[in-house]
């Protein structure tokens, strides 16, 4: 389970808080021949995020719009408004009706394309 503080620390360490990186969902599936391995199957930009204080989750959403979340839009508000309790909110993702409330299992980056990836397993 990944939480907000994990995300903030990884962004700081891996891309030095580069504000122009776009948050992107990285999709992983189990390898047909070896279920213990995950295979990268694609990516899509994340459009919206919601800090749900009732469920104690930071939820990233793909809504099909042209908007994109950048590191510069996400991190400063999280740092300003978050106490230690909020830093422990779980990271989740809603891809579509079939794949909603998905657990974020890891992070990555594509420096060339200025993308910061949040990986989910589908």
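^ Assign residues to that structure.
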């Amino acid at each position: 389970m990944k939480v907000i503080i994990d995300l903030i620390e990884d962004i700081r360490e891996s891309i030095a808080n580069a504000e122009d990186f776009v948050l992107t969902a990285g999709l992983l599936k189990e390898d047909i021949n070896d279920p213990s391995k995950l295979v990268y199957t694609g990516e899509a930009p994340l459009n919206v995020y919601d800090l749900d204080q009732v469920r104690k989750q930071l939820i990233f959403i793909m809504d099909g719009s042209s908007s994109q979340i950048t590191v510069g839009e996400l991190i400063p508000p999280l740092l300003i408004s978050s106490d230690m309790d909020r830093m422990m909110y779980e990271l989740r993702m809603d891809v579509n009706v079939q794949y909603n409330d998905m657990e974020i299992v890891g992070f990555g980056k594509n420096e060339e394309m200025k993308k910061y990836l949040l990986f989910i397993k589908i």
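The helical segments are 4-15, 71-81, 84-87.
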